[in-house]
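FOLDING PROBLEM:
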Amino acid sequence: SAYQKPPTNYRITESTPLHNPYWEYARNKIACEERLMQAYRTTGFPATIVRPSLTYDPNFPIAIGGWGCYTLADRLKRGRPIIVHGDGTSLWVVTHAEDFGRGLLGLMGNEQALGHAFHITSDEVQTWNQIYQTIAGALGVEARIVHIPSDFIAQAAPQLSGSLLGDKTWSAVFDNTKIKTFVPGYQATIPFREGIRRTLAWFEEDKQRQRIDESVNAEMDRILEQYLGDGQDGRRK
């Protein structure tokens, strides 16, 4: 989220400029990195920067539909429409927490990594359409996707504007060459189709985990109604 937006290249390395005018969260991350690197340069403070991207388990790695809840899965199972921003074809990377953890463990106590920044992400690249369709497939249903422009969503739900316009609207593919150099043998090994099944299994182990956030449902329905008009049948009127 901290990388340059709009991007000049979809492929991102650790040297890609940090600049995000759309999202305060991202600007705070940039400021934190700058403070740590200044301390490293001036006092030798032992700092290593780690930059993950949409790490999941047991959450659903989605752009719209709730975080830390079962709301999106419940909508899919009930055949209710879900929102995918734009045309759903921008490229994105989601990373299972176990894969991230292995990379992080390899950096801990690694003095050669001091003063450096690292991606720890999967090498699997998907579109947002594929991400949502894979979740639906793991549930055994078809996703009723309604594509809505990010600008429209940001106007209808301003609290989503930073995350969309400052992050998930744009394609983002992360180069992991550096982490693999400093942590020999590191490789993300859990494909999304497997990782999301683990997430669903976690929810299914205990019904109490399947929390539905009705405020998320209400917000999605409101955006859909504004965009489609009455009916919410997946066609713009």
Residues 24-43 form the longest helix (20 residues). The beta strands are 11-12, 49-51, 55-56, 82-85, 91-92, 95-96, 117-119, 126-127, 145-148, 173-174. The chain has a mean pLDDT of 94. Residues 37 and 43 are 10 Å apart (CA to CA).
